[in-house]
Structure to design on (382 residues):
């Protein structure tokens, strides 16, 4: 079976200026959008608590959100997963424990109200309050006072004669309690609970960014070694273009940007360079075959020669992603949607970003050569 019969002769490179202009506008728009609005970072990167609950009766995300707020939660993020009949929801809350920036002052005031305090320290990341009273206190009284202030307490441990450690409950317990209160005892079960501390989230975010940068650097080195130093910048700019397009998906849709999103970007980088390498390899072959022809014409021939392969490869990959889009939910849906955008962008950038960069660098090289410096582009033996 042949998707394209015979040799095509489309003038792809002739439209490169229009394509570069559109791509530049889109990329600048994404960069400005990120600077102004930022991403909707998930629990993986900003820290917090994720609780997945399933209701026995028909319930909507809006009802769950209203019930959570009514039960005492502040600005919970509620997302339905699965079909509407599943009644399955994910609630995301900032903070790992119930000792948060909003209620730490109330908890401290409750502790100080029990007696004279010599010293008191709080750690919002771990949800622990260390306090030293002037005289010994009853641990149960301390626990009752903090709970009454709005912060759940797991235990109060006596460390010394008048030293105590108060450990706050996890945020998941507050989410469960708020739902029961706000939804009048609705029947539901907690299926999953995830905690990520703010410090861990920051480390994951930084390492994810470093993973992207290292991947691009080594790919750039490989392309420069495999072909020619002048081919490397085109591959790098093409990868950056594809990353920005996928980032634009998360920016515009406000879908959660988390570790799965980093996996998408790394996969798109790999896919993008794979398609670019195929085009570059054919360009190098054509440069040897058609010595003396202008480089834009050679690149046009190479792109047309690889057109059938590009359509088949991208099409088959897109088919598998369409299946995930139809049946996938939550992070699986986001992965498939972002990957589909990345595949389209990667195929486009190989023709209209990476290849024109080679032409531009070659033109600069010829200008230097004409002025007495530089060396003309030569293809390495196939």
């Amino acid at each position: 079976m042949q998707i394209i019969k015979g040799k095509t002769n489309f003038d792809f490179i002739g439209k490169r200026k229009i394509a570069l202009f559109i791509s530049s506008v889109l990329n600048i728009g994404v960069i400005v959008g990120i600077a102004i609005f930022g991403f909707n970072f998930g629990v993986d990167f900003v820290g917090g608590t994720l609780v997945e609950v399933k209701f026995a009766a028909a319930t909507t995300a809006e009802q769950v959100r209203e019930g959570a707020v009514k039960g005492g939660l502040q600005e919970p993020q509620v997302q339905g997963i699965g079909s509407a009949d599943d009644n399955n929801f994910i609630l995301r809350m900032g903070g790992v424990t119930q000792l948060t920036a909003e209620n730490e002052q109330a908890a401290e005031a409750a502790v100080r109200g029990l007696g004279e305090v010599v010293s008191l320290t709080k750690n919002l990341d771990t949800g622990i309050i260390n306090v030293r009273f002037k005289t010994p206190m009853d641990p149960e009284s301390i626990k009752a006072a903090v709970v009454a202030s709005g912060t759940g307490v797991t235990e109060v441990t006596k460390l010394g004669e008048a030293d105590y450690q108060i450990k706050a409950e996890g945020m998941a317990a507050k989410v469960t309690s708020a739902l029961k209160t706000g939804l009048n005892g609705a029947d539901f079960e907690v299926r999953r609970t995830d905690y990520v501390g703010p410090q861990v989230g920051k480390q994951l975010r930084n390492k994810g960014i470093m993973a992207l940068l290292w991947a691009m650097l080594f790919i750039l080195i490989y392309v420069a070694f495999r072909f020619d130093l002048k081919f490397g910048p085109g591959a790098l700019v093409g990868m950056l273009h594809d990353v920005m397009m996928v980032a634009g998906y998360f920016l515009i849709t406000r879908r959660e940007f988390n570790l799965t999103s980093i996996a998408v970007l790394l996969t798109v980088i790999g896919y993008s360079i794979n398609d670019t390498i195929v085009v570059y390899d054919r360009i190098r072959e054509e440069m040897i075959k058609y010595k003396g022809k202008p480089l834009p014409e050679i690149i046009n021939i190479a792109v047309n020669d690889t057109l059938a392969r590009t359509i088949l490869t991208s099409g088959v990959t897109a088919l598998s992603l369409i299946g995930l889009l139809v049946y996938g939910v939550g992070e699986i849906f986001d992965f498939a949607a972002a990957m589909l955008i990345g595949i389209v962008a990667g195929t486009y950038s190989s023709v209209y970003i990476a290849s024109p960069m080679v032409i531009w660098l070659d033109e600069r090289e010829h200008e230097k050569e004409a002025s007495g410096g530089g060396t003309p582009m030569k293809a390495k033996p196939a």
